[in-house]
C-alpha cells in the first residue's frame, strides 16, 4: 500500500457512502486532484515554509556551509521556471527560496508604470505578487504530477507492474515546488498600523518571511541610492512588533522577520531619538549626530539642542529639516541597529553595503556576535555592484599588499576588456565564484540573494533575440537561440501548451465528461512535434 492508493481507497469509501448520486466520481481522479493541490490556502503555505526556514536556520547554525540562496523574481511564471530549473538540474529544491523584490515590484508591477524604488507603488501589489508566485508554483506541482499520472496510466495499459510501482513511489515522494519566499515590505508603507495591515495581507498570501528596513517610510530610497534617512530605534522596533503581531494573529507562530539596516549608506535622520537617561537607546542613537558645542548665549531662534555630559550641543540641521550623522559612523550604527533588532523580535539581519567585501561584512558581524552569538544575515548580492571591477580591485590591492608587481595593471581601469584572461582577472573570478561560500563561513551569511537578477536576464535575452530576428538572421535567431536550445536542453516551456495547463485541462474534461470530452491534445495539436 502507498499513500496514493490509501487516498484512493479512502475516497472510494466516501463515494460508496454517498450512493448512486456520486457514481460519476472516480476516486482515483479525486486522489490525483488532491495530490495536485496540496496547499489550499496561503496560510498553509506560510506555516509549511516557515518550518522549512527554521529548520534551515538551525542547520546553518550547526554548519555554516549549509547556507541558503534565492533569486529575486517579478512574475509568477519567472518564479515557477526558476524552481522547475532547480529541480531539473539540482534534483531538489532544498535550501533554495524565492525573493520578492520591492525594487522589481516598483519597476515592473505598478499601475503607474515603471517607478523608482521609493515606496511609491501600490502596497497591494506586494501581497498580490506573493499570491501569484504561489499560484504558479502550485501549478508546477500539478503539471509535474499530471505527467506522472499519464506515465502511470501507460504503465498499467502495458501491464508493467515494476513501472507502476516505481511511478507510484514518485507520486508518493513528490517534492513540491512551493518554497519559502522572503518578501520585501520596504519600510512598512506608513505607520506601525499600516505595517501590520500590509504584513497580514502578505502572510495570508503565503509569506513566511518579511523583510523590513529602518528607513523613513515617506522618504524611502533604494538601498543603493543616495539620500537615505533612518528612523530612531524605537520607531523601528514598533514596526518589528507590528509584523510579529500579524504573524501571531494568523497562527504563524514561527514566522521570520528580517530586519534590514541601511545605516551604512544613510547619513541622515528625520528626527532625534527620545532619551530618558545617559546611555539609553535614544542617547546612543543621538550620540552619532554631527553636533557643535554652544553656550546659552549662542542659542538662536528655533534652535534644537541636546544636553550631553553637562554641556549643550546643537545638532547640525539641514535646510530639509533633516539632521546629519558624523561621517565614518555608518558601521557602528549598523552594529547597534542589528543588536537592537535581534533583541526586539527580529530573527535575521540584512546589512545593505556599498560593495561586496567579505571582510567588511565580517567586521560588523563579529561585533554583533559579541552580543548575539547566533546572529546571521540575509545578504544582497546586488546587481548594483560592479562585481568585476570590485573584485579585480580587491585582488589588485591584495597583490600590492603581498609585494607583487602590478605595473601591468591600471587599478581604475580594471573593468577594461583588455584585462580579461589575465592572472589578476582569473583570480578575481575565483573570488567571485567563492564569495557566497566564504561569506557564509566568515561573515555569518545564512541566506544569499540577488535582488533583481531576472530584470536583467529578461532584458538581455530580449536584446539577443531582437538583434537577430529584426536583423539579418530573421527566424533563425529564434530557432537557433531559443527553440533549438529548449529542445536539446530539455526546457519544459518548449511544450508551451502543456506548461500553460492544456493537458491538465484535458484530463479534467475527461474526469468530468468521460468519452464526450472535447480535448485539445489530439493528433492535430502541433505540440506533438516536440515528442
Automatic annotation (TrEMBL):
It catalyses: D-threo-isocitrate = glyoxylate + succinate. Its cofactor is Mg(2+). One of its GO terms (biological process) is carboxylic acid metabolic process. The active site is at residue 222. Mg(2+) binds at residue 184. GO terms for molecular function: isocitrate lyase activity; metal ion binding. Signal peptide: none annotated. Substrate binds at residues 101-103, 223-224, 260, 380-384, 451. It holds the Pfam family ICL. Keywords: Lyase, Magnesium, Metal-binding. InterPro entries: ICL/PEPM, Isocitrate_lyase, Pyrv/PenolPyrv_kinase-like_dom, Pyrv_kinase-like_dom_sf. Can also use Mn(2+) ion. It comes from the Bacteria. PANTHER family: BIFUNCTIONAL GLYOXYLATE CYCLE PROTEIN, ISOCITRATE LYASE/MALATE SYNTHASE. NCBIfam families: PRK06498.1. This is Isocitrase.
Amino acid at each position: 500500500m502507498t499513500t496514493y492508493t490509501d487516498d484512493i481507497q479512502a475516497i472510494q469509501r466516501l463515494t460508496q457512502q454517498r450512493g448512486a448520486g456520486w457514481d460519476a466520481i472516480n476516486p482515483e481522479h479525486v486522489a490525483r486532484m488532491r495530490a495536485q493541490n496540496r496547499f489550499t490556502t496561503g496560510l498553509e503555505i506560510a506555516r509549511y515554509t516557515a518550518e522549512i526556514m527554521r529548520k534551515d536556520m538551525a542547520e546553518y547554525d550547526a554548519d555554516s556551509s549549509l547556507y541558503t540562496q534565492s533569486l529575486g523574481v517579478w512574475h509568477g511564471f519567472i518564479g515557477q521556471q526558476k524552481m522547475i530549473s532547480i529541480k531539473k538540474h539540482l534534483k531538489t529544491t532544498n535550501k533554495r527560496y524565492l525573493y520578492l523584490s520591492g525594487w522589481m515590484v516598483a519597476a515592473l508591477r505598478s499601475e503607474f508604470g515603471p517607478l523608482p524604488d521609493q515606496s511609491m507603488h501600490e502596497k497591494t501589489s506586494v501581497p498580490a505578487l506573493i499570491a501569484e508566485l504561489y499560484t504558479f508554483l502550485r501549478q508546477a506541482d500539478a503539471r509535474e504530477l499530471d505527467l506522472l499520472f499519464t506515465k502511470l496510466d501507460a504503465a498499467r495499459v502495458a501491464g508493467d507492474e515494476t513501472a507502476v510501482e516505481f511511478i507510484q513511489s514518485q507520486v508518493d515522494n513528490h517534492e513540491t515546488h512551493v518554497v519559502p519566499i522572503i518578501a520585501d515590505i520596504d519600510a512598512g508603507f506608513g505607520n506601525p498600523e499600516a505595517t501590520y495591515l500590509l504584513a497580514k495581507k502578505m502572510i495570508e498570501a503565503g509569506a513566511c518571511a518579511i523583510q523590513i528596513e529602518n528607513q523613513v517610510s515617506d522618504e524611502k530610497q533604494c538601498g543603493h541610492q543616495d539620500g537615505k534617512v533612518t528612523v530612531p530605534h524605537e520607531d523601528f522596533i514598533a514596526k518589528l512588533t507590528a509584523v510579529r503581531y500579524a504573524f501571531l494573529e494568523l497562527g504563524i507562530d514561527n514566522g521570520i522577520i528580517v530586519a534590514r539596516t541601511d545605516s551604512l549608506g544613510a547619513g541622515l535622520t528625520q528626527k532625534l531619538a527620545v532619551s530618558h537617561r545617559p546611555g539609553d537607546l535614544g542617547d546612543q542613537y543621538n550620540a552619532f549626530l554631527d553636533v557643535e558645542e554652544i553656550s546659552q548665549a549662542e542659542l538662536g531662534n528655533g534652535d534644537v539642542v541636546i544636553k550631553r555630559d553637562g554641556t549643550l550641543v546643537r545638532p547640525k540641521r539641514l535646510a530639509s529639516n533633516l539632521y546629519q550623522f558624523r561621517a565614518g559612523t555608518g558601521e557602528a550604527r549598523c552594529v547597534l541597529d542589528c543588536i537592537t533588532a535581534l533583541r526586539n523580535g527580529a530573527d535575521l539581519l540584512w546589512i545593505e553595503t556599498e560593495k561586496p567585501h567579505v571582510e567588511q561584512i565580517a567586521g560588523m558581524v563579529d561585533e554583533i556576535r559579541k552580543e548575539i552569538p547566533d546572529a546571521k544575515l540575509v545578504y544582497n548580492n546586488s546587481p548594483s555592484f560592479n562585481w568585476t571591477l570590485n573584485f579585480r580591485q580587491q585582488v589588485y590591492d591584495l597583490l600590492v599588499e603581498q609585494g607583487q608587481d602590478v605595473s601591468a595593471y591600471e587599478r581604475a581601469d580594471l573593468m577594461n576588456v583588455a584585462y580579461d584572461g589575465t592572472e589578476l582577472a582569473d583570480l578575481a573570478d575565483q573570488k567571485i565564484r567563492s564569495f557566497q561560500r566564504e561569506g557564509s563561513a566568515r561573515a555569518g551569511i545564512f541566506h544569499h540573494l540577488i535582488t533583481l537578477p531576472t530584470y536583467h536576464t529578461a532584458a538581455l535575452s530580449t536584446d539577443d533575440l531582437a538583434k537577430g530576428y529584426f536583423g539579418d538572421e530573421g527566424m533563425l535567431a529564434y530557432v537557433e537561440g531559443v527553440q533549438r536550445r529548449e529542445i536539446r536542453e530539455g526546457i519544459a516551456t518548449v511544450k508551451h501548451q502543456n506548461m500553460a495547463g492544456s493537458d491538465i485541462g484535458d484530463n479534467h474534461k475527461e474526469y468530468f465528461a468521460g468519452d464526450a470530452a472535447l480535448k485539445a491534445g489530439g493528433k492535430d495539436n502541433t505540440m506533438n512535434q516536440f515528442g
